[in-house]
Write a structure and sequence with these properties.
Blueprint lengths: L1 H29 L6 H9 L6 E4 H4 L7 H5 L5 E7 L2 E6 L14 E4 L2 E2 L17 E8 L12 E7 L6 E10 L3 E11 L3 E12 L8 E13 L4 E15 L6 H6 L6 H6 L2 E18 L2 E17 L4 E21 L2 E23 L11 E26 L2 E18 L10 E4 L3 E13 L2 E12 L3 H4 L13 E14 L4 E13 L2 E7 L2 E6 L1 E14 L1 E2 L4 E21 L2 E2 L11 E11 L3 E10 L15 E13 L4 E10 L7 E4 L14 E3 L4 E11 L1
Parallel strand pairs: 4-7
Antiparallel strand pairs: 1-6, 2-3, 4-5, 6-7, 8-9, 8-36, 9-10, 10-11, 11-12, 12-13, 13-14, 14-15, 15-16, 16-17, 17-18, 18-19, 18-20, 20-21, 21-22, 22-23, 23-26, 24-25, 26-28, 27-28, 28-29, 28-30, 30-31, 31-32, 32-33, 33-36, 34-35
Pfam families: Plug (PF07715), TonB_dep_Rec_b-barrel (PF00593)
Main location: membrane
Membrane topology: Multi-pass membrane protein
Length: 692
């Protein structure tokens, strides 16, 4: 029995790091036009820290609109998507209690932090067709990427290969989908340039659900000499999205296409203009030491008419990130190190106005009197370092440390005198250490262990009392993560297995308690325990010289519970964590013919999700099936064509794609828990790529 336990732990340790390297190798071998340079760099920068990468091979399972479906293939990662503009990313249950949006993780685009000053990230501002790969670090073990309890997600944009190309991908589909992506790339010995313009419109499955987006991406670098390289990145997105919002259980069962009554009457929507600009310099001091330093600026202009008021806000953010990478030898063994820091500062301005839509039912929302006017200055500083050193020929260790300092300065510009609620909050400095151990018992057969500390900062709403005053009692969430895993390449490296077992305890649990239709207060209400098992399999089977078969699977078992959770007079200790399915399974099959045809089919199972802290109501489990058939052909030396056709949810399953936990009904209405998922829908794409 003892040997069996050791074997299982050893096997599971080994499986986790394996899935990451698998996908990189596959993408290089199978898709000649894709070279995952960014993913390899990111992995090198994190040393032996476990992470997982998905790339174009994985993106090809779904339509060019489906970033959420691609992310949901990763075990431990679950994205609840109310609409294209309403996504909540959870990693191992962290972030599941956030009412709207994504927090408690760090999001990076081309190694530039794009998470705002209170920890919120908007992945929907980025076009999947502009991304080469996505790397996910689960838990706080990636000290160079913020040590947040949820972890970090690194988006790596496409980069030009050694050629000049002009391409256009045109997609049409159900619900009025129209998407066009136009791209120009150039690369030579010194200059690499990617320029993309994208436009998308979608009428939507539900009422008041129209989405329109325009975006431009410029990603360029210039090699000055053998020691210096400069790069510039510009990403601008302008989108307008109507909001159907969540609906009650009765409405969800009777007619899932309907919008929430008040949101439909107000014709609620959000309009966003988002810009990210960054410049970076990479300098090699010598063959053993290099540095990359980035300066960046972000701007968000957000306008959102809601039934209860109209929100008008804009945010200016700026900062820098610097990272040194180096190595030296100890007794002929290579020791690697990295250290650096990042500073993010932003100025958040927001005002609310009366919404007079009830006086003008034909036109929808109308701005009324000013209700509030606020400004908040937010600062986050992270310093980090790692040291990776050999303990033996096949045994290495990595020590990491992240130091975080967070500061909020809130200004009430509307009230004066004794009613003014201005204030500031400076959180204590938090030290988050990490230890990674990795043992290679055979080439491409590895096991690892991780122990790491992490944190989550309160959101803006959680830092304020119901009267809008800075809450002096709110504290940061902190937690300790324990993880073992393994990465295995078997059957002549054709079978890749990644397994991880983890347990994370979180203290000072941040709870957003809803006290009004748009009012939340935060408090530290206890602790949670996150534990589970994650499995990822990928097998390449070359049946003939012309035909290749690739089955794959990922599974997540999430046993997450409240350990100590008292909310007022209610004791929820021992209940399952709200907003997290216990079981998730993704399976799929990719068929590839050498003549250019491919056929990919995927299946996703999501278990029931507890909707209330009291565990009195849960969503139904569901199964989703998607399929995509395509053909790619090099028609001539310069012209390449691609044709795709896909069906999403081809079994026409009725399901909730996202849920709102602890929903409260107002004015005698039923609580609105559910965001319906789309019914059966279709899409088709035409790609033309010309080499100049």
């Amino acid at each position: 029995m003892r040997s069996l336990v050791v074997c299982v732990v050893f096997f599971s340790l080994h499986m986790m790091s394996f899935g990451q390297d698998i996908m990189i190798k596959d993408s290089i071998n199978q898709l000649k036009e894709v070279v995952l340079i960014d993913s390899l760099k990111a992995k090198q920068a994190t040393g032996i820290t476990p992470s997982q990468v998905i790339d174009i091979k994985n993106f090809q399972n779904f339509s060019p609109v489906e970033m959420v479906s691609s992310l949901n293939q990763i075990p431990g990662v679950y994205v609840l998507s109310g609409a294209l503009n309403t996504n909540r990313i959870t990693i191992r249950g962290v972030g599941a209690r956030t009412p709207y949006g994504t927090d408690k993780l760090r999001l990076y685009y081309n190694d530039i932090p794009i998470t705002n000053g209170t920890g919120f990230s908007t992945i929907e501002a980025y076009d999947l067709e502009n991304i080469n790969s996505i790397e996910v670090i689960k838990g706080p073990k990636g000290t160079a990427f913020g040590a947040n309890l949820g972890g970090a997600i690194v988006l790596n944009p496409k980069k030009a290969l050694q050629q000049t190309t002009l391409s256009n991908n045109f997609t049409v589909g159900s619900y009025g989908l129209l998407k066009n992506s136009l791209g120009f790339t150039h690369s030579d010995d010194r200059l690499a340039l990617e320029l993309h313009y994208g436009h998308m419109t979608l009428e939507g499955y539900r009422e008041n659900n129209r989405f329109e987006r325009d975006g431009i991406l410029l990603n360029t670098s210039y090699t000055i000499n053998t020691k210096n390289k400069i790069a510039f990145l510009l990403n601008h997105v302008d989108y307008n999205a109507q909001i159907a919002s969540s609906i009650s259980q009765n409405a969800f069962e009777e007619d899932p296409t309907q919008a929430a009554f008040t949101w439909k009457a107000a014709k609620g929507y959000e309009a966003n203009k988002y810009t990210l600009a960054g410049i970076s310099l990479t300098h090699a001091f010598n063959p053993k030491l290099s540095n990359t330093t980035s300066l960046f600026y972000t701007y968000l202009d957000h306008y959102e008419p809601r039934p209860f008021n109209i929100l008008d806000e804009f945010t200016n953010g700026y900062g820098f990130r610097t990272r040194f990478l180096g190595d030296f030898k100890i007794r002929d063994h290579l020791t690697q190190y990295s250290f650096g820091a990042e500073l993010y500062k932003d100025e958040y301005n927001w005002s609310t106005y009366e919404n007079l839509y009830e006086t003008n039912t034909e036109e929808g929302s109308i701005k009324g009197n000013l209700l509030s006017d606020n400004k908040e200055f937010r600062t986050q500083f992270n310093a980090f370092g790692t040291l990776t050193f050999p303990l033996a020929d096949f045994f290495s260790a990595q020590l990491g440390l992240n130091i975080n300092k967070t500061f909020y300065d809130f200004r009430d510009l509307y009230k004066s005198g004794a009613e003014n609620t201005s204030g500031n909050r400076r959180f204590g400095t938090l030290f988050s250490p990490s230890l990674n151990l990795r043992y290679s018992f055979y080439p491409k057969q590895e096991v690892y262990m991780n122990i790491s500390r992490g944190l989550s900062n309160p959101s803006l709403e959680e830092t304020l009392t119901p009267d809008g005053i800075i809450n002096p009692d709110i504290s940061q969430e902190t937690g300790t993560n324990y993880e073992v895993g393994c990465d295995l390449f078997l059957v002549n490296n054709n079978l890749k297995i990644n397994v991880a077992l983890y347990r994370m305890s979180i203290k000072n649990l941040l709870v957003a308690q809803r006290i009004g239709e748009d009012e939340f207060i935060g408090k530290n209400a206890g602790s949670t325990k996150h534990q589970g098992i994650e499995l990822m399999l990928d097998y390449n089977l070359q049946l003939t010289s012309q035909f290749k078969l690739t089955p794959f699977m990922s599974y997540s078992y999430s046993n997450h519970k409240f350990v100590d959770f008292i909310d007022g007079d209610n004791d929820y200790s021992g209940n399952p964590l709200t907003g997290v399915p216990k079981h998730r399974l993704n399976t799929g099959l990719q068929l590839q013919w050498r003549n250019g045809f491919y056929w990919n089919t995927t299946h996703q199972y999501v278990g029931s999700i507890p909707l209330t802290d009291a565990n009195t109501l849960s969503s139904d489990s569901f199964n989703l099936w998607h399929t995509r058939l395509g053909y790619k052909k090099q028609l001539s030396e310069k012209l390449r064509i691609g044709i795709d056709f896909g069906i999403n949810n081809f079994t026409d399953t009725h399901y909730a794609q996202s849920v709102l936990i602890n929903a409260v009904g107002f004015g005698g209405s039923d609580p609105r828990y559910f965001y319906p998922g789309n019914d059966r829908n279709f899409y088709g794409s035409l790609l033309l790529k010309y080499s100049l």
